[in-house]
Amino acid sequence: MHLLRNRTLTSKAILAAVANRIRLFDVYASLKRKHIGSQVVIANYHRVTMIKDDWSCESLSPQAFESQIEYFRQNFEILSLDQLSRHLRQDRSLPKKAVVVTFDDGYLDNYVYARPILRKYGVPATFFLTTGHIGGSRLFWWDKVGYAVEHTRKQWLELTEFGTWELPAYDRRKTRNRIVNAIRDLPEQRKNLAIEDLLRVAGVSIPDALAKEVILSWEEVVEMSEEGIDFGAHTLTHPILTNMPLEQAKLEIVQSKKDIETKIGRQVNFFSYPNGSLNSEIVDIVKQAGFVAGVTADPSWITQESDVYRLGRIMMIGDSNRSAVLLCGLWGDLGVLRRL
Predict the structure, then answer these.
(1) Of 185, 202, 219, at which residue does a domain stop?
(2) Which site in 3, 135, 275, 279 is 20 to 30 Å from 106, CA atoms measured?
């Protein structure tokens, strides 16, 4: 099965490389631009690091990230999220080709590796912070899952709520991702209990200092802010906001905004919905909290008709050919067709 999966992934990679080589994605983007009138995308990143933590979420190498920033510089107009939101709120025409750079969560490698590259090329970016984790001692919940899966000595995990999971010796990332997906949409209390159960069954303890090694401190946030980098709010604890009482969701949204404003002494205007989960009630809270725009996980281009509180973003990955599929709009369009 492992060999078959590798062959499937290799075939997809080869197809993407061939399609990119013959400029198929450029043709698709050009046709889509003619229909829509512009190509404006919000690129979304999480981690940029030289160190591959197999227990953490996917990351790009600094070389891959710099290559993408160079590509953006050569082929797109670079906008800040503030500039884009002003275009939309003031009903001004969008540029023909433009990109906005954003980061989610608040990983330390954003400061160490991404920040110097952005500064080198003069590219603005908005970093969305999960404020309950900044400067603290708690890993993000998905990293707890990944750490447990990667560091357990067991070959099987029998979880109380989610059954039995095999842990192959050669690559545990697929199992990690499946457990993360199984837990992700649970109400917060059940999610926390499921992670405690996982750690107990795996026989793994997370080192106390680990969070400080991978998550930003407030001192680093302040330094970045003083350099002109923009920050947005991403809740206190990264919950699925639609899975909790509205008052609790409101606290997550409003307090994360206050946390950042208190630390950096500047207004926070932008909000990122964790996992892109939202509904009209959550959007209303974001508006009432004083945010001027919100970004989601919907892999769609921005158009003149886009709702400024529901702006889609393209999740960027290290493979340049597969990234081309995302940027040209094909992946988002296929997603729309699948939902019909």
Answers:
(1) 202
(2) 279
For the stretch 196-233, pLDDT in tens is: 999 999 999 999 899 999 999 999 999 999 999 999 99
- List the one residue out of 99, 79, 132, 83 whose CA is nearest residue 292: 83
Neighbours of 258 (CB within 10 A): 13
Q: Which residue has the tokens 């708690």?
A: 138
Min mean pLDDT across 44-48, 94-98, 168-172 is at 168-172
Same domain, yes or no: 237 and 328: yes
Q: Which of these three, 202, 221, 246, is where a domain ends?
A: 202
Q: What is the pLDDT of residue 7?
A: 42
Cα–Cα distance measured from residue 300 to residue 303, given in angstroms and rounded to the nearest whole number = 9
Helices and strands (H and E) in the chain: how many: 15, 12
Examine the domain organization and report whether 74 and 215 are in the same domain: yes
How far, in Å, CA of 207 to CA of 304, rounded?
A: 48
For residue 190, give Cα distances in angstroms to 160, 185, 243. 12, 10, 11
Annotate 222-234 with b (16+ C-beta within 10 A) or e (fewer): eebbeeebbbbbb
Question: How far is the C-alpha of 101 from the C-alpha of 78, rounded, in Å?
Answer: 8
Which tens digits make up the pLDDT trace of 154-175? 999 999 888 899 898 778 888 9
Residue 182 belongs to what domain range? 141-202
Name the token pair of 106. Answer: 């608040």
**Mean residue pLDDT across the chain:** 90
Give yes or no for residue 4 having a pLDDT over 70: no
Alpha-carbon gap, residue 117 to 18, rounded angstroms: 29
CB 203 within 8 A of CB 158: no
Residues 130 and 279 in one domain: yes
